[in-house]
Amino acid sequence: MLGDPTHPAIVLLHGFGTGSGHWRRNAAPLAAAGWRVYGLDLVGFGASSQPGSRSGRRLDNRLWARQVQAFCEQVVLEPAVLVGHSLGGLVALSCAVFFPHWVRAVVAAPLPDPSLLMPPRRPGRRRPWRRRLKRGLITLLCRLLPLELIVPLLAYSPLLDLGIQSAYNQPVIGDRELHQLIARPARRPTAVRALRAMSIGMALRPFQATAPALLGRLRQPLLVVWGGADRLVPLEVGLQCRNLQPHLTLEVLPHSGHCPHDESAELFNPLLLRWLTRTLG
Given this model, what pLDDT does residue 35 score? Predict the structure, then answer.
């Protein structure tokens, strides 16, 4: 925790493949601006546990939302502003919808979800045989993926640096701190089972846990920040978010990639603070 214990709370939620250390350029400035700042490693990431699918847990944004709610209840001890990068933005949105009394406002930078690119569908229960068939096929495909070969290949080779670079617009190859932040969890012996579990969990989410449904139910203020040069999740997805939730605020950092909070911290931090002041007073 950084900042005065009497100040209002912000919980920072990292994106896929990273950890709380990815807020290296944001936590201290937010604390200096009068916030009590927490960083949380979601289950399966960072220094947190990396359970597999046989643990009985479904690793998806519903579980991570419950983790954030429990963290607010047991550690923060009051409702907090949730600021999430990428997957963390979806988790922040999920927590705000499922546990609204613990969330004051949501910031997603950005908010990716494959369901945002799919044709809208009406929620409803599928026939049991179709649900069982889908569950069986997805589980089988995820178990057949040779992750035991793929994950070490990425974690221990220059391919990891190329993958990291794809999330940034400016050159970051050679940033050892960033490299270690992502490589260290991927090299843990339990990383493969956790990746397989979250692949299955996210693919089998019900409609109610997807971004389109969550955006329609959100009642707290929402700021969405997008990198104008994001090659992983294009800005068109952000525009779709605004169609689903007209009251959100969408801000674009033109020269930033998929990690605007890290790549353009000098713009992201004051933007976030201005929005919080204007929105929460």
Answer: 98
Query: pLDDT tens digits, residue range 160-213?
Result: 999 999 999 999 999 999 999 999 999 999 999 999 999 888 988 999 999 999
- What CA–CA distances, in Å, run from 206 to 54, 58, 159, 210, 248? 20, 12, 34, 7, 24
Calpha distance 265→215 (Å, rounded): 26
**Cα 92 from Cα 88, distance rounded (Å):** 6
Cβ atoms of 194 and 166 within 8 Å: the answer is no
Which is nearest to 26 in space by CA: 107, 138, 119?
107
Place of tokens 């178990």: 143
Query: How many CB atoms sit inside 10 A of residue 264's CB?
Result: 22
pTM of the model: 0.93
Return d(Cα 217, Cα 271) in angstroms, integer: 25
Burial class (CB in 10 A: 0-12, 13-18, 19+), 96: buried
**Beta carbons within 8 Å of 198's beta carbon, 6+ residues apart:** 44, 59, 60
How far, in Å, are 114, 216, 254 from residue 251 at the CA level?
21, 20, 9
Number of residues assigned to the chain: 281
Using DSSP's 3-state secondary structure scheme, residue 108 falls into: strand
Domains and CATH numbers, the chain: 9-280 (3.40.50.1820)
